[in-house]
Recover the amino acids of this structure.
């Protein structure tokens, strides 16, 4: 599984960073980006889905098969 | 100036009506089902969208709607777009982007985390002062003080001026009903106070947000005096009654829902989800836009210079967007609520507000695990009306 943040859509609500700091980081301006090229280890797949379900701007996408 | 009471919410609503302050939820639910974008001739024309879809669409549409003023009043704003009176909240693109960017680092999650120990110690101090009492007012004795103390520290203003800040909030944001002359006089007092603080910071620069803004540059030039003053006023005012309302409404919910109160006290790992659910269910802030030019939105003929309210709290209760929208579920795991707005004006202070809310609830539950409303009379809890809704009195019986 991979996650990706669309930085055009991200408005820095920082929900992803709060819920899954292993997968996301935020810069000084609150804009989020995925860590480790977006690769999600199996044990963090739940957290990745949680981040997606709590991003008010629909800025995070999941690719289940890569 | 008091307004005639509302008899028809679809065609003559008034968001400052006492019924709307006391309990707006049934009003929004009914409008969403019957007339999802209401209109009123009050305030020179104002629209009230109530679904998540419409509120989001308007928040994202900066082409047709301007943020030149975000508080509905009888008059229209004097400071011109795209800067407006208090950047960045009153600014439109493209100016908005840089004015906002300037503020973001001071409110990033990492910068805000550094303020947590201070906030926690202050919350304890507030409860030390009411230690041993069997009754306390969680709004007056507790919630209202927390955001005031923290923003005063960030701006580098004297902690002893807290009472004045609260008066500014009441006089400027929560009193849109006052006659224009009175409002201008109130704004004048706030301006004079800020001028003194700014002069003191010019004479004695220090490591705080005020000195930072005085030294900040846009396109290589220092900000003009109006921009600095407007932004400081915004930071001072925007964070106070909003966060105070969120803390108060959350404690109110726990006071009348013992199962949630016990659960939160016993399962601290629930806290991050509970905070978001309480923000969703009791979102305190409704913003507004002005219609730029005549424009038809979803079949509604909106006229230039009419207001459009953005009731994020109603969007947060839309059953088409949230499962069991009307139920408070502290462990809700899918929660794209809009309490801090949507799009480019997303609350700059959201990380600060969340930290304050979480610390305030943690300390309260730790020190006072058992509490309930002191009176069965709903009128004992007074809710502020208008665009920021929260309990202004919240008498509790403790222990
Ligand atoms: C629970 C507490 C709070 C709530 C619910 C809240 C809500 C909001 C909302 C809904 C907006 C969007 C405005 C719009 O779309 O026109 C906003 C903007 C803003 N808020 Fe907050 N706020 C809170 C606390 C704070 C705090 C603590 C601060 C800082 C001290 C703050 C500073 C701002 C600023 C500067 C903006 C303007 C952002 C922009 O226009 O780019 N807020 N807030
Ligand atoms: S939750 Fe969404 S909007 Fe917020 S920081 Fe993450 S990606 Fe950006």
């Amino acid at each position: 599984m991979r996650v990706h943040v669309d930085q055009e859509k991200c408005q820095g609500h920082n929900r992803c960073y709060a819920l899954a700091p292993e997968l996301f980081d935020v810069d000084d301006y609150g804009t989020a980006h995925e860590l480790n090229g977006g690769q999600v280890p199996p044990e963090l797949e739940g957290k990745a889905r949680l981040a997606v379900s709590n991003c008010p701007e629909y800025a995070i996408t999941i690719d289940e098969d890569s | 100036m008091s307004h005639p009471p509302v008899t028809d919410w679809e065609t003559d609503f008034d968001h400052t009506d006492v019924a709307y302050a006391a309990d707006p939820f049934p009003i929004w639910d009914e409008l969403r089902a019957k007339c999802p974008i209401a209109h009123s001739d009050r305030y020179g024309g104002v629209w009230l969208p109530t679904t998540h879809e419409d509120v989001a669409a308007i928040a994202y549409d900066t082409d047709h709607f301007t943020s030149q003023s975000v508080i509905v009043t009888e008059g229209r704003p004097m400071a011109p777009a795209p800067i407006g009176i208090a950047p960045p909240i009153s600014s439109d693109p493209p100016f908005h982007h840089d004015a906002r960017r300037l503020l973001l680092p001071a409110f990033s999650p990492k910068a805000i985390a550094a303020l947590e120990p201070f906030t926690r110690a202050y919350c304890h101090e507030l409860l030390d002062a009411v230690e041993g009492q069997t009754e306390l007012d969680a709004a007056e004795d507790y919630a209202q003080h927390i955001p005031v103390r923290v923003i005063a520290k960030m701006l580098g203003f004297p902690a002893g001026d807290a009472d004045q800040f609260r008066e500014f909030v009441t006089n400027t944001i929560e009193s849109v009903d006052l006659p224009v002359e009175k409002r201008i006089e109130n704004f004048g007092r706030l301006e004079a106070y800020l001028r003194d603080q700014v002069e003191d910071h010019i004479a004695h620069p220090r490591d705080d947000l005020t000195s930072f803004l005085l030294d900040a540059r846009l396109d290589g030039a220092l900000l003009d005096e109006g921009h600095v003053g407007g932004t400081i006023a915004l930071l001072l005012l925007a964070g106070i009654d909003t966060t105070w309302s969120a803390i108060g409404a959350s404690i109110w919910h726990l006071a009348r829902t013992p199962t949630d109160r016990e659960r939160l006290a016993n399962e601290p790992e629930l806290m991050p989800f509970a905070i978001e659910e309480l923000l969703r269910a009791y979102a305190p802030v409704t913003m507004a836009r002005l219609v730029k030019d005549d424009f038809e939105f979803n079949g509604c003929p909106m006229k230039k210079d009419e207001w459009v309210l953005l009731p994020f709290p109603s969007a947060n209760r839309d059953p088409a967007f949230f499962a069991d929208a009307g139920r408070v579920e502290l462990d809700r795991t899918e929660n794209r609520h809009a309490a801090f707005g949507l799009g480019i004006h997303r609350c700059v202070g959201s990380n600060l507000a969340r930290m304050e809310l979480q610390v305030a609830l943690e300390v309260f539950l730790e020190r006072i695990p058992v509490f309930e409303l002191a009176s069965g009379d709903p009128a004992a809890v007074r809710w502020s009306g208008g665009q920021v809704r929260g309990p202004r009195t919240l008498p509790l019986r403790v222990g």
